[in-house]
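Morning!

This is the sequence you dropped in the shared folder:
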Amino acid sequence: MTVLIHDLGEEYNTILKDSADLLIHADGKYVPCKGCFHCWTKNPAKCDFKDALQEICRVIGQSDNRIVITENWYGGHSPAVKNLLDRSIGTSTPLSTLRGGHMHHTLRYGRHNHLKVVVYGDITEREKATWNLMVERNAMNEGFAGHEVVFIVSKDELEKVSL
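The structure's back. Tokens below.
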């Protein structure tokens, strides 16, 4: 299953619908993670907040491939996408394991195939380097076999990107 997370606006859902099995529009209308770690310990993979992201850990954790389309915000995800990803921390457990020569949390749902991040907006070379390192480390931490980062200047270029 391929999950696509984006902050493009609801009007893009129609354009993107054939690119993934499940589209998640990060519209910024979700409660931010409160850092209680109940999704790790008390209610594994289930958030305490009863909103549209309550089961996000299971949805993201069980996907084979993940595509994230986000605006560049100072070398990181847009606030709406970051909020959504923060709420999915329960895809791992509090236990640790050695992966790639580094300590990482064990994966609640096992390994994944591919992580693709499409970043749009003004991006400096230094921010590109940050993005490449961040996606590489996220892919390793979340158990992806492969990853890639694609940079585009505007949303209009999205149709040129193979999702």
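Headline: The first strand starts at residue 2 and ends at 6.

More detail when I'm at my desk.
O.
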